[in-house]
Design goal:
The chain is of the alpha+beta class. The protein has 6 helices and 16 strands. Strand 7 and strand 8 form a beta hairpin. The longest helix is centred in the middle third of the chain and has 11 residues.
Amino acid sequence: MKHYNEYFISEEYSGKSVKDFLINNLLISHRTLVKLKKNSSILINGEKAYVTRKLKAGDLLEIILQDEESENVIPEAFDLNIIYEDDYMIAINKPPYMPVHPSRGHYTGTLANALAYYYMNMGGNIKIRPINRLDKDTSGVVIFAKNSHIQYLMSKEEVFISKKYIAVVKGMVSQGKGIIDMPIKRENSNSIKRVVNEHGQKAITIYEVLDKNEKSSLLRIDLITGRTHQIRVHMSHIGHPIIGDELYGEISPLIQRQGLHAERISFKHPITHEIIEIYADIPDDIKKLISILGLKYVL
C-alpha cells in the first residue's frame, strides 16, 4: 500500500522553501508538518531534506505518509463492496445493519473491522479514518481517508461534498421540491433521539419528489449539513417519516429498517482536483419496497 506522495517542482515554486510548498500548495496542517519533520519523512531527489531547504525546478519532492496503526479495530474477514479506490481514499457501499465503526461494547462486525482486514491483506495496518458516517441501518456510500492529511483536506470548507440520498417516506409529499431549514438538537442528554429545536445546530435538507401516490413518496434528498439523524428527523417533523424508521416513525411489515440509502457522493478531489462522483447501487430491500408501494425509480 502506498504511503508516500511524489511531486515534481515547477518553476512557480523554484526558490521557495519546502515549508512554503507544503503549506501553500499541499495545504499540509501544522500537526502533519510537525510529524513529517519529526519522522524525517521529507525527501528531495531521494535524500532527506529539512523544511527550510530551497526548492529548484525539476526537483522530486517525496512526502512519506506512514499512518499510525489502527488501534482498537480488530481485522475481520467480511466481503467489501468497494466502489472507488485510489492512493488517497477508498469508498464502500455499506450494507444495512452494519455500523461504520466499533463502539463501546460492540468491537466487531463493523465496516471498520472489515476495512482493517482489507488493509492488512494489502500490506498495511493503518488507522481507520471515515470521511462520512451512516447510521447502522442506512445503506450506501461511506468514504475513508488513507492518511491524516487527506482526512484533514476533506474536512475543509473549501472541499464541497455533495451527498444525495434516496428515501421512501410515508404519505404523499405535496410539493415537488422543498427545503427544510430547521435546527436539530439531542432530545435530552440520555437519549439518542434528535428533535427539531430552535436552540439546536443549523440543519438544511433539500428534497425532490421522484414519484408519489396517496400512501407514499419516493424522494431524492440533498444533505447540505450533516447532523446526526438529520434526514430522519426532518422528514418526521414535516409529517412524512421514512418508512420502517422505528425511532422517528413506526416499524413496517414491508422493510426491516428505515428506507434510506446514501446513493451518491461527489466532490473535488483534494489532490488531483478532478470531480469525483461515487455511486452506490440501491439495495434489494429498498428496490422491493419501491415496487410494492407502486412507485417508480429512474436513475
